[in-house]
Amino acid sequence: MFKKIELSQWEGNAFTTIGDEWLLITAKDGNKVNAMTASWGGLGVMWGKPAAYIFIRPQRHTFGLIENTDRFSLCIPGEEYRKALGYCGSHSGRDGDKLTQCGLSTCEVDGIPVIEQSHTVLLCKKLYAQFLQEDCFVETAPIPRYYPDKDYHCMYIAEVTDLYIKE
Fold first, then answer.
1. pLDDT surpassing 90 at residue 51
2. Residue 158, Cα to own-chain centre: how many angstroms?
3. Dihedral through CA 7, CA 20, CA 81, CA 165, nearest 10?
4. Exposure pattern of 101-113 as b/e (b: 16+ CB <10 Å)?
5. Quick one: CA dihedral 131, 136, 139, 144, positive or negative?
């Protein structure tokens, strides 16, 4: 179903993939798997490793899953799943199986949950986590717009350990 490729072989563009296509941050804690839509974040290099930067608010169900695991995936299903991505971004998996409700399914790759409908999957290992802090904003304009309740995101830096594409 998925074929492992070298990170250098990926033909994706981080700006359009994250900002326009969106992705699903997918994690597992025990038997509970959940995914949330993300359109913020980045890909780059940190501490000499390929890295992903993701941001999750503490009230999101996925936050608890990510906090309780070291490994997660970033799954890119593509434009044909835009409605499902919208659903996963606006509904909680805390009280039900939102993935099933929007027609998505999961499998595991190297023990990490991934969305089967994805065309690209990045497997990640957490390296660092820290909440954004109001006194650290250099540009304060985002605070009233994105944080009217001061519920700042937790930023995670994760090593991208593997890249898979749909066969």
1. yes
2. 10
3. -10
4. ebebebeebeebb
5. positive
- Give, in order, the Cα–Cα distances in Å from 99 to each of 34, 48, 53, 57: 7, 35, 23, 20
Q: Give the number of C-alpha atoms closer than 13 A to the C-alpha of residue 70, restricted to the C-beta side.
A: 4
Q: What is the pLDDT of residues 104-160, one digit of tens each?
A: 999 999 999 999 999 999 999 999 999 999 999 999 988 999 999 999 999 999 999
| Residue entry with tokens 């070298």 | 6
| pLDDT band of 1, cuts 50, 70, 90 | confident
Reduced DSSP (H G I as helix, E B as strand, rest coil) percent helix, strand, coil of the chain, to 5: 25, 40, 35
CB 77 within 8 A of CB 85: yes
Query: What SS3 class is residue 131?
Result: strand
Spatial separation of the C-alpha atoms in residues 45 and 53, rounded to whole Å: 10
Cα–Cα distances in angstroms (integers) from residue 24 to residues 10, 94, 138, 150, 165, in the given order: 18, 16, 29, 24, 15
